[in-house]
């Protein structure tokens, strides 16, 4: 009986490793931008209507864009302090982005009065103003909402070190809006960073 179990175990181990080796490699997929949307509220807590905003307001306000740790569960809207006050939960913005590491770009926007497709382009530039990471996604937006976007990025090993930037450009119909933050592209964790 022991010999039979031993043979069956060896056969199962061989079959499992063969199946794992013959599996086709997974296609490399484009990073997916996650989106969280919350309707804006009026002064007394009632939902704001699209007609309540002035036509002279900018349709889309691109409030902030930061790069930080790729953290599960973040970013989030109203996830801090319960429902007591409106809040925005973000990973701490990175003061340095290390070459070869994975981060997430988070953007917060307010849609005052635009409904339709928006193309969001997330970009990281190095110290020489070269685009080192760029990804775009088109999403459908609704007027009178807060929008929180997040997309994963990897800083290339070839990026120039020094002060770079991270940005999000939103093109919604004929309206284009952009927000940007500085980020230090680095290759080691302690000074001196790199000599190039």
Strand-pairing-aware structural class: mainly beta
Distance between the termini: 66 Å
- The CATH topology label is Coagulation Factor XIII, Chain A, domain 1
Silhouette = globular
Which residue ranges are poorly predicted, with pLDDT under 50 across at least 5 consecutive positions?
1-28
Largest sheet: 5 strands, mixed
CATH architecture: Distorted Sandwich
Report strand order across the widest sheet: 5-11-10-7-8
Number of strands: 11
Structural description of this entry:
With 196 residues, the protein is mostly beta strands. The chain has a single domain, classed as abc- transporter (atp binding component) like domain (Coagulation Factor XIII, Chain A, domain 1, Distorted Sandwich), CATH 2.70.50. It has one helix spanning 2-22; strands at 34-39, 60-69, 76-77, 88-89, 96-98, 102-111, 116-125, 131-141, 145-154, 162-172, 175-186. The strands form three sheets. A five-stranded mixed β-sheet has the order 5-11-10-7-8, with no helix packed on it. Strands 1-9-6-2 form a four-stranded antiparallel β-sheet, with no helix packed on it. Strand 7 and strand 8 (131-141) form a beta hairpin. The radius of gyration is 23 Å and the shape is globular.
């Amino acid at each position: 009986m022991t010999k039979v179990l031993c043979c069956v175990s060896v056969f199962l181990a061989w079959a499992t490793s063969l199946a794992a080796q013959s599996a086709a490699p997974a296609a490399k997929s484009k990073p997916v931008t996650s989106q969280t949307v919350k309707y804006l509220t009026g002064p007394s807590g009632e939902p704001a209507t699209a007609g309540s905003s002035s036509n002279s307001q900018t349709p889309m306000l691109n409030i902030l864009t930061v790069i930080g740790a790729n953290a599960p569960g973040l970013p989030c809207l109203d996830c801090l302090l319960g429902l007591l006050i409106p809040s925005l939960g973000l990973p701490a913005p990175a003061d340095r982005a290390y070459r070869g590491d994975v981060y997430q770009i988070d953007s917060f926007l307010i849609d005052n009065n635009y409904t339709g497709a928006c193309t969001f382009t997330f970009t990281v530039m190095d110290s020489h103003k070269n685009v080192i990471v760029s990804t775009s996604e088109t999403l459908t937006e609704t007027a009178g909402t807060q929008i929180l976007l997040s997309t994963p990025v990897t800083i290339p090993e070839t990026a120039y070190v020094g002060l770079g930037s991270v940005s999000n450009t939103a093109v919604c119909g004929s309206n284009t809006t952009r927000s940007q933050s500085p980020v230090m592209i680095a290759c080691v964790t302690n000074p001196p960073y790199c000599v190039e």
